[in-house]
Each structure stands twice: as C-alpha cells, then as structure tokens.
Amino acid sequence: LKAAIRIVAFSREHMEKTWRIKTPAVNSKPVFPAALNISTTVSTLLTNRGIDTFGSAEKFLNPDLRDLSAPALLPGIPEAVSALFEVINNKERICVYGDYDVDGVTATALLVNTLRELGADVSYYIPHRYHEGYSLNKEAIDELAKKGVAWMITVDCGISDAVEIAYAEEKSIKVIVTDHHNPPEALPKAHVIVDPKCGPADTPYYYLAGVGVAFKLAQALYQEAGKDFAAVEKYLDLVTLGTVADMVPLVGENRILTFFGLQRLAKTVWPGIAMLKKTAGLKENVSTRSIGYALGPRINASGRLEKAEIAVELLLSPSQDAARPFAAQLDTLNKKRQEISARILAEAEQMIKDDPALIENKVAILVSDKWHPGVTGIAASQLVRAYNRPMVLISLEGTSARGSIRSPDDIDIFEGLRSCADLFINYGGHQEAAGFEIRTENIPQFRERYTRFLNGSIDDAMLIPEIKIDLPLPGDQISTELVTDLQRLAPFGQGNEAPVFFSDSLQLVDFRQVGDGSHLKCTFSSGEKTFDGIGFGLGEYAKILSAQPGPIDVAFSLEFNEWNGAKKPQLSLLGIKKRSA
Ligand SMILES: [Mn+2]
Fold first, then answer.
1. How far away, in angstroms, is 99 Cα from ligand 1 center?
2. Which residues pair with 484 in a beta bridge?
3. Ligand 1 centroid, distance to 183 Cα (angstroms)
4. How far separated are the first and last CA of the chain, in Å rounded?
5. Which DSSP string corresponds to 207-264?
6. Are 482 and 569 in contact (CB under 8 A)?
7. pLDDT at 26
C-alpha cells in the first residue's frame, strides 16, 4: 500500500513540475565579492535575494549576537519587566500560559526557567489541543484562579483573546500577553502586551517566533537583575528549536538567533535536548533539517496525541536521567503519530481511487469518522504534494467535526475559509494552513461553498508545482570551495532557502534506487570530476532514466557528504529531466 501511494505521489509530483529560474533583481550587480571574500556565485545569490549593499551582505555573512536589538525597544517589554519584578518581590503566584506546538512548548520552558532563576513562584499551563483548543479558555482561567494564580503571562498566544482576558481580570488575574501572531482590530485589555506584529514590519524583531519574543523578555529580565548576556545565551537552543519549527522567516534577528543556536545545540547544555537527540539518533551537529524531521516532530507528538506537558518536562529536566523517560515517551508517541498519518494517507488515497471525482475540483475535501484530528494536518500536507491542490481532511466526531486544510505554495486557502465563517463553530490559521470546527450537518454546505470559492480563485497554472531555481551553474564549477562558500548563507529554511541550481552540462554516469527503493543515488560527471547525487523520494526516476537515456538537465542544491572524515560535494537532487531539444 505504501508503495502505491509513493508512485501516485511521484507521478503527480515530479512529472509535471515547471522549472522556473528566478528573475534576478533589475540592474543588479554582484555585491563586492572580493571585499567580502566570497565567490561571484554566492555574491550573485545574495544580490538576487535583495541583500545588495556591502553593509547588508557583510552583516548577513557574519551574524553577530551584538547586532540583536536591545530588548527594551520591543514595545511592552519595559512595562512587563517592572511589573514582573514587583510580582516576584510580592511573592505573588505566576502562571506561564503556553501552546502545545514546538514554539509554544519551548517558549513555556524558557520563561518558566527564567522566572524560577529569578526567584518567582511560577507554574505553567498548556491547554489540551482537542479538549480545550488553542490559546486561552474560561475553564482554564477558573482552574488557575482556584490555584491562587495572580498573574498570567501568555507565550505564543493570547493576542486574540480579548474576551478571555477580560474574564481573567474579573477573576483578579492580571495578564501579560507575549505573542507573535497578527493582532485583531480590538486589542485585549491586558496589563501589558508584547507582540512585534503590533508594530511596523521594518523592525529587526518583526518576524520573531513566540519563543523569540519570550527570549527578549527573558533577556530584559536578566538585564534588570544585573546579569550579563551569558545568563540568557543558554536559551538560544530553545529559541532555535521553536523558531525553526514554527517556520518563521530565518532573516533579521531570527537569522542571528538560529545561527548561534545551532552551534549551541551541537553541544547543548540542556539535558532534555541532549537526551532527545540521542533518542532520535542524531549525532552532535543539529541542522534546521534535523529539527524539521527529527526533533520537532517528537516534541509536537506530545500535544498531538497526548499532552504537551511531556515535552515541557523533558526540556526542564535537570539531568539526562530525569529526561530519559520523557524522551522515550515522545519517541513512542512520534512512532504512533507516523503510523496514524500513514494510515490516513492510505485511506485518503483509496477514497480518491474509488471516486476520482473527489479531485476534479481545485480543492479536494475528504471526510472520515476514522481519522485522528491531531494528525489530519500532516496527512493533508502529504496529499498536497501528491495532488498539487489544496486538501481538506475532515474528521467526524458525531454531531461535530474538525477539518485541517493545507495548500501548495502561493495558494491562499484562508480567504475562502473566511467566506464560510458563518458555517463554523470556530476556525483559524493563515494562507497555507488552517483548521476549523464545524457542525456535521453544515459539511455539505461547506463543501459546496468552499469548492465554488476556490474554483473561482485558483487558476489551472497555479496548480502546476514549480522548482524554483536560483541560478544556472555549469557542472565544472562545482567544487569543495563553492560548497564551503555556500554554507556561509546557512542556516537555511523558511525565508532563506538553500540555493537551487540548474545544470545542463552534467553527464549521468550511474544511478540506482536505494533505501526501500524510494530514493535515487546517482553519479555525475562534469568531464574532469565526478560527483555523487542523492534524490530523496526520487527513486521512481530510475525507470524513466533507464527508458530514456541521453542528455539530461538537473536541478539540485549543494551540500557536503561526510564519510570517514572526508568531505565531498554532493548534489541534493530536486529533479532530473531529459534535455528539451
Ligand atoms: Mn508560534
């Protein structure tokens, strides 16, 4: 069954892709390659990405913690600091109110640890993903009030909770909101609000994740306590996990924070993270990619299938021994999550096979009463890659149902959702990912209206996936020096993708399917040199390449393959096609 899914995914995903070479900025010249000591290739990449002055390129290539803006510049931080020191002095009880995803969990751990170190009486609360849902709710506030909580600090949530915050104030709980989500028109009447999205977009901290905002507050608190930056530097590990997992753009301060955070993660001082790395089979180095496939999913699995407290307790563990059971639990939950998402994917594929009309429209809406709502989002993302269109997976639970929506790049699924707002119990999200709760009886009407909306707003051309290519690169320019140079643009991720090249001057010397057959290993020759290439998920190309030998075009990014202490350039393949005549 798994193989069948892969082939469907493969044929749709890779055969119909458009290769688009990004248009360089008009009149752009490479920025000072000699003065910056970089190759013209890297210089051109920078220019094309809008980093086109010597100053901006110099800062980009050499991240420096001293370039982080003073925390007090972020509106609300000075007020939050003075309030919190008073709270600590008065020995009033504080609760950090977080979220169940990686960003929310790391932000919670960061602020709890900070406030403990400063002598506060602090606990934390994370709502249950399904029983309570995202952000504040009245029942949780009642519970905290009963426990004598006098102050609540939200992390990664709260900015849209005017009603709940007013309720908390009624219950004599004062609220400090720290969040990074877009504010609604009417801000909550909280004691203090810290949210970079409340200000202009040109600040260096505008794109901070929830954990980045918590970091700023922590930095200001330690400063006020007379501690130097070393006291707060240890939190860069947590900031990096949350920032990368939340897929905020890795530019501005996020670049500086993650650049140093990844270095720290290699030798992390956090016993819980060290234990999680071991459990995940990671070696010393941590990359944005290993956060994406190994650490992030394990931390997230707790909130998806059970309770996010497991992840917070892991992060706050004082020793690896204490962390071990939490890491083991996260690992087990992650395996379970993988099984569940594979099953949802298989069932969805079968539904489509049985009824191809399901994918006749610009959006596919699938409904089942067997799907775990914590995992439908992951399965929907996989189906988006297979069918190149927005996918809605709805899991029925009696008279109500929950839906997850995912979309391909550059397609907005949220506007259409908003147009159906009257049908939902609640809904939320953004352009590429959203969710909703709906009464089961409203599903047919939702299906009709949402399909009509997206059929009208999506062109056929938008459903053809693209490989976005940064630059053409002759095969003979691939070298150890170039790959070393390209690493200076890392960390790669959202907003700063690994450069993609295109070459029509490489010969395919050898290829074979590897792993369970789903990956492709190749050897290329540029005439003088040979290079290895690996294409994850491209195993099926073997058939096409065997059937159609001849000149090829290759789309790839470049990385090092380290083996036996030797470092060799390796092509990470995104696509191969027969040379167009
Ligand atoms: Mn977040």
1. 8
2. none
3. 13
4. 37
5. T--HHHHHHHHHHHHHHHTT--THHHHTTHHHHHHHHHHTT--S-THHHHHHHHHHHH
6. yes
7. 60
| Predicted local distance difference test score (pLDDT) of residue 551 | 82
- 21: number of Cβ within 10 Å: 15
pLDDT at 550: 74
Q: Report H helices in 248-400.
A: 253-266, 271-279, 288-290, 296-305, 309-316, 320-354, 376-387
Q: Are 141 and 174 in contact (CB under 8 A)?
A: no
Closest CA to 195 of 153, 240, 243, 159: 159
Q: Return the structure tokens found at 256.
A: 């500086």
Q: How far is CA 460 from CA 387, 414, 433, in A?
A: 13, 19, 20
Spatial contact of 300 and 275, defined as CB atoms under 8 Å apart: no
Separation of CA 88 from chain center: 34
Output the CA 454–ligand 1 centroid distance in Å.
Answer: 27
Burial 390-417 (b: 16+ CB within 10 A, else e): bbbbbbbeeeebbbbbbbbeebebbebb
pLDDT digits (tens, 9 = 90+) for 471-484: 999 999 999 999 99
SS3 422: helix
Distance 254 CA to ligand 1 centre (A): 13
State how far the Cα of 508 lies from the Cα of 59, in Å rounded to an integer. 39
Burial 309-347 (b: 16+ CB within 10 A, else e): bbbbbbbbbeeeeebbebbebbbebbebbeebbbbbbeb
306, two tokens: 């059970």
**Is the backbone peptide bond immediately before 472 cis, with ω within 30 degrees of 0?**
no
Q: d(Cα 338, Cα 372) in Å, to the nearest integer? A: 12
Give the pLDDT of residue 17.
77
Q: Which residues of 165-196 are buried (b: 16+ CB within 10 A; e: fewer)?
A: bebbbeeebbbbbbbbbebeeeebebbbbbbb
Write out residues in the chain with pLDDT < 70, as ranges: 1-16, 24-28, 548-549, 580-581
Say how many Å lie between the CA of residue 63 and the centre of ligand 1: 23
Measured distance CA(181)–CA(578) in Å, rounded: 45
Give the Å distance between the CA of 283 and the centre of ligand 1: 27
How far apart are the CA of 180 and the centre of ligand 1, in A? Answer: 7
Number of helices and strands (H, E) in the chain?
22, 19
Q: How far apart are CA 346 and CA 1, in angstroms?
A: 7
C-alpha of residue 156 to centroid of ligand 1, in Å = 5
Q: Return the pLDDT at 35.
A: 83
What global pTM score does this model have?
Answer: 0.92
pLDDT at 14: 46
What is the per-residue pLDDT for 2? Answer: 41
Report CA(546)–ligand 1 centroid distance (Å): 46
